């Protein structure tokens, strides 16, 4: 199939670009937050496990919650 020449401009292109920019900003914020969380957990693991019983107990649930949030944001945004 040969594409049209010149291609027809998409009338909704600016709107679609704006939506994608919003999604990208949200995803970047989540990534930065997760990087900080991972760094925090890595620092905590260098100490004895008994020193951080609460954070080690909640960390899988906490990071799982953010993964779900990212997936929800990507789908809904």
Description:
The structure is a single chain. With 77 residues, the protein is mostly helical. It is 74% helix and 0% strand. The chain is built from 2 helices and no strands. The longest helix has 33 residues. The protein is elongated, with a radius of gyration of 20 Å.
Summarize the structure.
The protein is an all-alpha fold and 77 residues long.
Helix and strand layout, with pairings?
Elements: H1 13-45, H2 53-76
Q: Percentage of helical residues?
A: over 70%
Q: Mean pLDDT score, rounded? A: 73
Largest sheet: none
- Supply the helix-strand structural class: mainly alpha
Shape: elongated
Radius of gyration: 20 Å
Distance between the termini: 32 Å
Q: What is the count of β-strands?
A: 0
- What ranges have pLDDT less than 50 throughout 5 or more consecutive residues? 55-64
SSE arrangement, N to C: HH
Beta-strand fraction estimate: under 5%
Output the keywords.
0% strand; mainly alpha
């Amino acid at each position: 199939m040969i594409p049209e020449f010149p291609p027809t401009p998409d009338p909704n292109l600016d709107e679609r670009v704006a939506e994608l920019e919003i999604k990208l900003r949200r995803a970047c914020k989540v990534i930065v937050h997760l990087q900080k969380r991972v760094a925090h957990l890595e620092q905590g693991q260098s100490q004895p496990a008994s020193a951080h019983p609460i954070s080690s107990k909640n960390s899988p649930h906490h990071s799982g919650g953010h993964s779900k949030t990212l997936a929800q944001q990507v789908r809904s945004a």
